[in-house]
Here is the input.
Amino acid sequence: MERARLLNAIIENAIDGIITIDDRGTIEHINSAALILFGYEKEEVVGKNVSMLMPPPDKERHDSYIANYNRTGQNHIIGIGREVYGQRKDGSTFPFRLGVSEVKFSDRKIFTGFIHDLTREKDDEKRIKSYTEELEIKIKERTQDLVKLINELESAKEHVSALFEKERELNQLKTRFVSMASHEFRTPLSSIQLSASLIDKYTVKNDVANVEKHTGKIKNSINNLTTILNDFLSLEKLEAGKVEANPTAFNIISFAEEITE
Here is the structure.
């Protein structure tokens, strides 16, 4: 008697729901945890068919499950356990893991079902799935942003490389410009220096003709310098395309003689 009370106390205070039925599916005992899960009072379910705690289609098929097992001995859940859905008194359903054991007692078959509520676990799974989907979307968006940023950086890199190349070309042009300018200025200056020294020589000899000749060369060289300087000062106009050609007639024979002297 004491052991029976102890066993009953253990069943009643179990965390999981425990239900016992006979071989026809009639509920013989249901503990407090199971009553809370399904929302019934004990007198509302004891003596009733256990299918009242099941949603369709299990509700309509459960009696045939038991009958088939009693006839063939082939079980699909006893001793195995599986996830199923239960139906509360208010009609709502909830997931739980069901484990069923068979007990033979006084020439009777008694089936005991152990019910572990999975509502919290399923809700957690849904939240985790939702968080995972949101994370995947954010990762996809961040990846797209990163790809876009990388493309922009590559474009900027190409632009900077082009600027460096242009700067290098400009530096080369500057070097060539300075070299050309030096040459263009040096030629008439050398002519002026030579003519000046010759004028000194011809002045001592009172050779007026040669003095006048080289004085004219100095004037021509000065004019050339002025022209070259004006050309350099006109580079801005040249770059803007505003410089126009100004053809001028000259004596090519005299020009050739000046060059050869």
